[in-house]
Amino acid sequence: MHIYKYTLLILTLLLNSAYSSIAQDAYNIDKVVIDAGHGGKDSGAVGKHSKEKTIALSVALKVGKLINDNIKGVDIIYTRDKDVFVELHKRADIANKSKADVLISIHCNASSSTKAKGTETWIIGTSRSEKNLAVAKKENAAILLEADYSKNYNNFDPNSTESYIMFEMLQNSYRGQSMLLAQSVQNQFRDRMHRVDRGVKEAGFLVLVYSTMPSILVELGFISNAEEEKFLLSEQGQDYLASAIYRAFRDYKNSMEKGKEISNTIIEENTNNVADTTKVDNKKNESAYFGVQFTTSTSIKKASDFKNIENVWHYSQNGSYKYVSGKFSSFSKAKKALKNITKSYSDAFIVSFINDKRVSRKECETKINELNK
Residues 92, 134: one domain? Predict the structure, then answer.
């Protein structure tokens, strides 16, 4: 095992993160770095008619323009604004040296299965599954195109599972903020665009590891899927995706600066509940659902912290995080889930939401009936 050769890298990242945490104004988000994945000699994923680098750049520029046109006082910095190759560590350097408040890295997904589809957003963390690790390896493989990659990344090998052990030792100071922003993006993709929601996930992406601010990596969809590739290549599809990311950033900024609430899902590997949620969506971009609230905390927790509780998510209220299981399209389904959850959390109860805002049971049932007509 060569874990000791990563010690210097870990210490450097921790020190950088600590320094940035002190320097950054946590309540003033006025500088965002938008990173279009890949570029130049690095095409990224390749579809039948497209290249990841081209789609990522187009959407990144659209996101920047939307923020610039609609939110005053926010500086936009691009890691690239044309088809050029930019090393991963330099992308993070751009964000760090500019003292950015947020980093948004934009990518497209690909799979050996042409049926794979949907959006997902990643934050820095440990790769808890082989699938997550495979995605990180794919994106990090870009460093192999760099002349001095071994020197630049302290002998980090993107294809070695052993290399990723260091992320078990690295605690990101901005995990909570990154998670909020990531879920805000997924909320927009799911509720406003009706894309398949693959959830918020974590893995060791180098562009996020080296960045000392809240940061996310967005996978817009699968260019290996013919239907999604067509959407990703279309002007309308790119406009919709850019608008969703813009709205997510806007909501995140408002939440952090003004205390406005945004509903969030904590990291969850199991996304089987998505289909049940989308049944109550319609063309008006509205949603209504029930959930089972089972505990409250003053800090953000991971899904793995709650044993035997499925499809865990949370929303914030009055400085606390309320943890909920499921998003159900009927009160009866929520009641059935409640019966199981009270075995572990006796004080659990059913909560109702319309467009991610708490409402009464009667209001929620009325809205669900309207949406199902």
Answer: yes
